[in-house]
Amino acid sequence: MVMKLLIPLLLCCVCCHAVVLKDLAYVSDGDPLQKLDLYLAEKKTDKPAPVIIGIHGGAWAFGDKSNPGFVHPKAAWFRSQGFIFVSINYRLSPKVVHPAHILDVCKAVVWIETHIAKHGGDPKQLYLIGHSAGAHLAALAGVDELRLKAAGADPKSIKGVILLDGAAYHVPKQVAAAWRKDNLFTRAFTQDPKTQMDASPTLKVASMTGAPPPFLIMHVAERKESEAQSEELARALRARGGKAKVAPIHDKSHGTINRDLGKPADATTKAVAEFLEAL
Question: Quick one: what percent of the chain has pLDDT higher than 90?
């Protein structure tokens, strides 16, 4: 019976020999976007595998968990390092606004904590990684203890957060920027200042009851708005007793800092490897 149920979901990727469980619903009878994909660990050990939870970008309005630019070569590289890689979808704007996106991330974390052990994963060893809008959501999930707890998740299960060129850690500042009057942020976070503040990881850190998990905050070296927001977030994390490293990545664009993670000799891959090894 179990095998019969899994057959429609179990895919074998010939090129990378990955075992993937696709389109698992993390909300029963939920929105079609409230689903995730599991890329099972390549290395088999006696211990449960740690889990990387990937959150795609797309201005909170587009993108997908199976986008090759986000998944590959990340999934293959993390799997080769002994991790399970999980790529999640979440509801998108303008159909929904904050806090719908982060509530979906929290619900996905709950599902992973509840079910990952049966797939060889460790529910107490979770790491978040996100690119662009996904970096914002990864950062927010890493510090929003109240929402995680309300969803049924254990904030202490998150052992590290990896951010790829986000620029919305302090939403009101981005909304106020003159060249951002194109509603990119207000479409997701409304015109309400309180909603924008509630969506800001940098501002959420102060309400944490304990120290935040370690953060690796990477940004394109030449992208000044990402640099400023990354440094401000890092200061807030450190002020709360957390460890936060800001890593400017040279010779990258907003796209390649994401797409190249997992490639041999890549600067982003090296930074992530060093961060994980130090934990």
Answer: 86
Q: Regarding beta strands 10-13 and 18-25, do their DSSP bridges make them parallel or antiparallel, or are they unpaired?
A: antiparallel
Closest C-alpha among 7, 13, 11 to residue 22: 11
pTM: 0.93
CATH number of the domain at 79, please.
3.40.50.1820
Cβ atoms of 155 and 113 within 8 Å: the answer is no
Q: Which among 40, 58, 55, 41 has a CA at the least distance from the CA of 87?
A: 55
Whole-number pLDDT of residue 42: 84
**pLDDT tens column, 217-242:** 999 999 998 999 999 999 999 999 99
The whole-angstrom separation of Cα 184 and Cα 180 is: 7
Q: What is the structure's pLDDT at 178?
A: 55
Residues 196 and 180 sit within 8 Å (Cβ to Cβ) = no
Structural domain range at position 16: 2-278
What letter would DSSP give residue 275? H
Closest CA to 148 of 161, 157, 136, 135: 157
CB distance 153 to 109 below 8 Å:
yes
Q: How many domains does the chain have?
A: 1
Residues 6+ away with beta carbon under 8 Å from 278: none
Read off the tokens for 179: 């060249």
DSSP annotation of 156 reads: G
